[in-house]
Amino acid sequence: MRPNFKGIYVLKYIGVMLMFVAGVILLPLILLPFYPSEAKYALCFVIPAAACFITGLIFSKIHVPDDCRLSIGSDAVIVTGTWVLAVFFSSLPFMLAGMLNFTQAYFEAMSGWTTTGLSVVDVTKAPMLFLFFRSVMQFFGGFGIVLVVVSALSESLGMRLYTAEGHNDKLLPNLAKSARMILKIYVGYFVAGTVLYVIFGMPLFDAVNHCMAALSTGGFSTKADSIGAYNSLPIELITVILMLLGETNFFANMLLVRRKFRAFFRLGETRLTLIAIAIATPVVAVVSLLPLYGKLSAALRISFFNVVSALTTTGFSTVAFNNWPAFAWLAVVLLMIVGGGAGSTAGGIKAGRAYLLIKQITWSVRRRFLPERMVNQPVIYRPEGKTILSQELYAESANYALIYFALLFAGTLILSGCGYPLQDSLFEFSSALGTVGLSVGLTSIHTAPVALWAMTCGMFLGRLEIFVIFYAIIKVAQSMKRSLLKAG
């Protein structure tokens, strides 16, 4: 009998990915020729990158016997461990620079890697290197650490880790080729988006950062007023397109690139996204924003951008939400909960799951009016193909939604317990759990540490889709129990 995959061997695969994270931490240093006055911050990145690389190198040297294999749940441990350590090492530059304490720095790094966009950094005072670093974390965090380094792993293990990281698509028969294809597509989007931003008046540094943040549906901005600081309709429209591309499933983007538009618009999550935007934009504009902004054109423009930002879980904004009526707040919260496409850079329950649940409800009602002997199974179109709506598929989506709402309730309760208004707490934790980044002002350098840690956990759970972290915890607990029993 072949032996089980022992716990220490997971460190080897975590090590491989940590060496990549070290490279990401060093990336801001490419700006030094353009901002030589910020050379004093170089060691703030070099030291954490070196520590991350050395840790990864040591882990990667662990010898794994040829007859060892991953046991059930080990893939979840690898992915969860990688993300926890990646966020830790990425938080160190903020602390070494004296900008943030550990709680705030870990929150900021978690917000970056999970593509959330909630921030405790004052962007009006932050050095350029750190603004760029935040965007870089979001760019690579959106793809997923596993996706970027999957070519260094075996095909079978790579696919399991890729799935454990929240992706459900496999574009090509070879996963490494899939990873390279995804990167090529998004690099193309990035170049085109940056060029368009510059053409319409955005400075190059801002254009690079906002393009990375939009495609990753991250929402970190170099401006305190986010996209609203530019007061430019073309820039807002470019941002909307980038946000929609970012929230679209990787496989669906492949369909777009190959001009298979019919197949793209047949996807259930694509239809739900477009319908939600088409309904929410005029309703929010007329019911809530028209009295606030006076003109229908202004209300529609503001509503459209921020509805797309909420649904794609990006977090860019053109106005402050503090004075929005309760109806508009609730609409934004619901959109943040639904989220973007499965297997994309977006968060939330995911449009694919929401569409499936809606389809199941409508089918249940319709079935009552069909002849008893009539055989007719409902189908949905997902990025991986035409899928029969089975009870198992429905149960998986329903269970996920139930746990998601339970976590949303718990997080809102914790924030309100810290003394924040219930409405603000619901909005802010919805934004954290959905990895959105929209804020009503609750998140700042002065936010209570308990609230920051609650939102940090929410971002982590939302990015890795809850079950992966649960599986990792169960796997570690089982391994510890077995070790204790053997020791006893």
Task: Explain how this protein is built.
With 488 residues, the protein is mainly α. The protein contains 20 helices and two strands. A two-stranded antiparallel ribbon has the order 1-2. Strand 1 (379-382) and strand 2 (385-388) form a beta hairpin. Helix 13 (268-293) packs across helix 16. The chain is globular. It starts with 9 loop residues before the first helix and ends with a helix. The model is unreliable at 1-5 (pLDDT under 50).
Summarize the structure.
The protein has 488 residues and is mainly alpha-helical. Helices cover 65% and strands 2% of the residues. It has helices spanning 10-26, 42-60, 74-96, 102-113, 128-143, 145-149, 155-164, 175-199, 204-215, 233-247, 250-257, 261-266, 268-293, 296-311, 326-338, 351-367, 391-417, 422-433, 449-463, 467-487; strands at 379-382, 385-388.
